[in-house]
Design a protein that fits this description.
Layout lengths: L12 H10 L5 E2 L8 H12 L17 H11 L1 E5 L10 H14 L3 E2 L1 E3 L6 H10 L4 E5 H4 L9 H10 L3 E4 L12 H10 L5 E3 L7 H10 L4 E3 L6 H6 L7 H6 L4 E2 L11 H9 L5 H16 L1
Parallel strand pairs: 1-2, 2-3, 4-5, 5-6, 6-7, 7-8, 8-9
């Protein structure tokens, strides 16, 4: 493995370590990080570079490193567990991506075995196979995949995942650009049929923060991840409503640290400082950055 040069702190490692050490934590758990086959990741980066229609704005990639250096960076930050969030944008990709992710989890034991799916024939079979092979978390991206979570092809998938208790990190908010099936409506209909589904709303549901917090209040198994939320970058685009600050405290046991590493336009430490400046206290930060995910993934 290629090592990160410890003589420099250009990537903010010291800031990250000081953050969790001050809280008395053994490290942090990040439920929203991206690892995927290199050709796929390069295409994702090229899309961001081109300010594609699903981003629509300048989005520099801060951690544009090879896989080994990205892994070394996360570990130097003190990230104890992380994910390999990956997603298909068309039929025929998901099973292949799941095969890659299973192999990645085998060789990177601190990564939670991640899987994905797409509404297509055979989806229930390969999702069941992934669960039986040890998948700990799934990723669903309604914006990129442009599919309805209520597609009949997915009905057995949601039932299977709810029964197995496997969390599904889902990009269902309408940020940064609305999709045909984003927003609280489609997900609300899904949850009405599968109230025990362990749905993790990515990006705190931005920009529909209040609506997704309301869904979390209504469904005890719904959680939200902090990915990009509260950062200067997000606040300039879709600021979190001050009136909802109290609900963040009320639902503190169901909010999980996510960052979007490596595809973020700022240093990793900024996400942590953005959470700290909410002023919700050290106990809240300890739960969000470690305890809640530790309990969810046991």
């Amino acid at each position: 493995m290629s090592d990160v040069d410890d003589s420099r702190d250009d990537d903010g490692r010291d800031e990250v370590v000081r953050f969790w050490q001050r809280l008395g934590l053994p490290g942090i758990i990040d439920v929203h990080t991206h690892f995927m086959p290199e050709p796929v990741l390069r295409k994702v980066w090229a899309y961001f570079d081109a300010a594609g229609p699903l981003t629509g704005l300048e989005w520099p990639i801060t951690y544009r490193h090879d896989e080994e250096e990205r892994l070394a960076l996360l570990r130097s930050f003190g990230v104890l567990r992380f994910t390999s969030m990956l997603y298909p944008h068309k039929a025929g990709m998901a099973a292949w991506l799941n095969g890659w992710a299973a192999g990645f989890a085998d060789r990177v034991p601190d990564c939670l075995h991640t899987a994905t799916f797409f509404p297509e024939e055979g989806v229930a079979d390969y999702v069941r196979e992934a669960v039986e092979s040890g998948a700990r978390v799934f990723k669903s991206h309604l914006q990129v995949g442009a599919y309805d979570p209520n597609d009949p092809l997915l009905e057995p998938v949601w039932g299977l995942l709810a029964e197995a208790g496997v969390p599904v990190v889902t990009h269902c908010g309408s940020g940064p650009v609305p999709g045909a099936y984003t927003g609280p409506g489609p997900i609300g209909r899904l949850l009405s049929r599968h109230p025990r589904l362990r749905l993790v709303v990515a990006h705190m549901g931005m920009p529909e923060y209040a609506e997704f917090l309301a869904l979390a209040a209504a469904y005890p198994e719904v959680r939200l991840d902090t990915t990009m939320a509260f950062t200067d970058f997000a606040e300039d685009l879709t600021p979190f409503p001050a009136a909802e600050r109290g609900r963040l405290a009320d639902l503190g046991e169901r909010i999980l640290l996510g960052t979007d590493f490596p595809n973020i336009p700022y240093p990793y430490a900024h996400q942590l400082h953005a959470l700290e400046r909410l002023g919700l206290g050290d106990a809240w930060l300890r739960a969000v950055c470690h305890g809640n995910a530790s309990a969810l993934f046991r």
